[in-house]
Amino acid sequence: MNKILIIDDEEQLRQLLKRIVSLEGFDVVEASTLAAGLKMLEKENIDVVLCDVKLPDGNGVEFVKSVKKNYPLTEIILLTAYGNVPDGVQSMRNGAFDYLMKGDDNDKIIPLLNRALDKVQLAKKVAHLQKQVDAAFSFATIIGAAPSLKQAIELAKKVAATDTTVLLLGETGTGKEVFAQAIHQDSNRSDKSFVAVNCSSFSKELLESELFGHKAGAFTGAIKDKKGLFEEANNGTLFLDEVGEMPPELQARLLRVLETGEFIKVGDTKTVKVNVRIIAATNRDLQKAIEAGHFRSDLFYRLSVFQISLPSLRDRIKDIPALVDYFTKMFAAKTNKPVPSLQKEYVAALQQYDWPGNIRELKNVIERSVILEVNELTISTIPFNIQPDTNSNPFSYELAAIEKQHIQKVLQHTNGNKTEAAKLLGIGLTTLYRKIEEFQL
């Protein structure tokens, strides 16, 4: 229930106003002074304050400023018996929702109160969503305790508070975009846009248009003006993933934006000014690309003011159990399934693989396992190429070992469909279940 605070030193008027508001189903609390009102705000979760302008211990117009500073989601409606234009103007500047005359405007109070509450509810929803965003993209979401990862996180936290350009280095799938989002979220630009683009996903012409925008008629198909990603990210952060794949012609344009904060749209002649923080990422060795003539050295030095290297998953094998637990819970929730337990052999098998696709590959494997199993994630749900070689002796040709491997391959081929696997194997379903139990698949 919405809670309303009424502050007025006139007992009779305060009780009348309380009755009017209470009859509409609102929870009403009251105070006769500004000091008592502040104590009520500290104690109760107040949505809207109805406050007299002239009170024994102060002025309601100045009180508005104090309330909005400490309780920004709370709205204040000022009531006065001696209305004047300067007070009304100043109260609105201080953050009041509205300014009303006492007595004559009682019929306006409830509609005004409802509009103020609508604003409060919207502000609360926005605040709640912002908390979710903060939680989803903060450094707390980066899982692992490996020293190399902790060092990368510490560096990222230090540079986040600045506007310095950052270059994230690491293999594909190591979480470079996750780091970029965390840096943005921990910066003073967190309330502005975070815009990401993969430079390897577009041709030169399309990437130029995506980054800088274009004017209508600039090329075939450009039927109207388009804002580029630099404009979309103005006052926020632009994440350039796979920046090493950017064509040389665009590298020169990017360098100019980094140096001057200005660019010209495709097909235009006017300069556009932006304030954008750049975070770039690559899995390439840019020094070698410079030597080969594929990447500008001046752009590299401008991008690499602050470098952070992200470790590969094979260099932080001890973090795999924590990652497996996290992704298992995430995909169980996503697929509306109970969280399955983890077979020891399942986790051990994942720790024996070298993960060329890093965290992204691990994430995909676990999603597949959660889809295939309900109660427990077992080694049989791991793709066959990832499973450890159970035949440690290369010269061992035991029939049981070969049979087990063949059944595993067929189950992998059928995505765990046992009925289909039994048909392909040419055996009965009951026999297949017996084999699965025998081989602990």
Sequence-ordered SSE layout with sheet pairings:
Blueprint: E1 3-7, H1 11-22, E2 27-31, H2 34-43, E3 48-52, E4 54-55, E5 58-59, H3 60-70, E6 75-80, H4 85-93, E7 98-101, H5 106-137, H6 147-160, E8 166-169, H7 176-185, E9 194-198, H8 204-212, H9 229-232, E10 237-241, H10 248-260, E11 262-264, E12 271-273, E13 277-282, H11 286-291, H12 297-303, E14 306-309, H13 320-334, E15 341-342, H14 344-352, H15 358-372, E16 376-377, H16 399-413, H17 418-425, H18 429-439
Parallel strand pairs: 1-2, 1-3, 3-6, 6-7, 8-13, 8-14, 9-10, 10-13, 15-16
Antiparallel strand pairs: 4-5, 11-12
| Termini gap | 55 Å
Q: Which CATH class of the largest domain?
A: Alpha Beta
CATH level 3 topology of the largest domain: Rossmann fold
H/I helix tally: 18
Instruction: Give the total of domains.
Output: 4
Low-confidence stretches: 392-397
Record the strand order, biggest sheet.
2-1-3-6-7
Which percent band covers the strand fraction? Answer: 5-15%
Mean pLDDT over all positions: 89
Q: Major beta sheet, specifics?
A: 5 strands, parallel
Binned, the helix content reads: 40-55%
Q: Can you identify the CATH superfamily of the largest domain?
A: P-loop containing nucleotide triphosphate hydrolases
> What coarse outline follows from CA principal-axis ratios?
extended
Query: Based on DSSP secondary structure assignment, what is the total number of beta strands?
Result: 16
Give me the CATH architecture of the largest domain, please: 3-Layer(aba) Sandwich
Structural class category: alpha/beta
From the alpha carbons, calculate the radius of gyration and give it in angstroms.
Answer: 31 Å
